[in-house]
Amino acid sequence: FCLANCQNGLSQNILYIQLDAAIVVPMMAISVRLALWRQRAARRLQTCCTVSGLAPSVPSQAIHLRQWAHQALKASSLAAAADLTCQWLLSQQHENVTSDAYFPWSVDWQRTSSYASFGMFYVSWIQRLVYRRFDAWFGLGCATSVVAKKVAADMIYGPFVYVPCFYLWTGLWQGRSLTASVQNLRNCFLE
Fold first, then answer.
1. What's the rounded Cα separation, in Å, for the pair 191 and 188?
2. What end-to-end distance do the CA atoms of the chain give, in Å?
3. pLDDT of residue 3
4. C-alpha–C-alpha distance, residues 9 and 57, integer Å
5. Cα–Cα distance measured from residue 127 to residue 162, given in angstroms and rounded to the nearest whole number
6. What is the pLDDT of residue 5?
7. pTM (2 decimals)?
8. Three-class SS string for the chain?
9. What value does the mean pLDDT take over residues 110-119?
């Protein structure tokens, strides 16, 4: 019964309406018991669908996607703000800028957008999945799992995956060729 309801997309509200239409409850005590029974039936239905491997309900998927999208926008905004701050500090070091313009220095928007896009797509989506995989591999909560994750992130993942992806992503986004991006990685990271 629950698999047919889950697969056909029938919501729990339809089950409630059918029960309410079939049973007329004149007394308050019976209606309270019926409400409790419906809650238990809904929990059983949800457990059955979860155990059978079916996808979670649409509202929970929407909430989950919304949380990930929020993280993506936050990572993108932080990366763009950090790059604009660095560009401003570099312009202050090279010249004494006194202007009333909103951006008194020359902003490299292509560079800023490359960092923002890396933050939005790689940092908030891919890196989040990588760290969740670390949690699955090394476990949660004990000191040895924290140390193992730290070593894996800093000694393996960072230098061999994250940094090359960063240089290739931002280089290609800024219009460099793949060979120029690889050369930039070698010049900046390997020295």
1. 6
2. 64
3. 34
4. 9
5. 8
6. 37
7. 0.60
8. CHHHHHHCCCCHHHHHHHHHHHCCCCCHHHHHHHHHHHHHHHHHHHHHHHHCCCCCCHHHHHHHHHHHHHHHHHHHHHHHHHHHHHHHHHHHHHCCCCCCCCCCCCCCHHHHHHHHHHHHHHHHHHHHHHHHHHHHHHCCCCHHHHHHHHHHHHHHHHHHHHHHHHHHHHHHHCCCCHHHHHHHHHHHHCC
9. 94
Q: Is residue 112 a contact partner of residue 83, using CB atoms and an 8 Å limit? A: yes
Kindly report the average pLDDT of the chain as a whole number.
Answer: 74
Contact 88, 132 (CB under 8 A): no
Residue 147 CA: distances (Å) to CA of 100, 135, 152, 157 = 50, 12, 9, 14
pLDDT digits (tens, 9 = 90+) for 165-186: 999 999 999 999 999 999 999 9
| Environment class of 106 (CB within 10 Å of its CB; exposed 0-12, middle 13-18, buried 19+) | exposed
Virtual torsion, Cα 149, 155, 160, 166, nearest 10 deg: 80
Q: 174: burial class by Cβ within 10 Å (0-12, 13-18, 19+)? A: middle
Place of tokens 């460099």: 176
Ramachandran bin of 95, using left for φ above 0, alpha for ψ from -120 to 50, beta for the remaining angles: beta
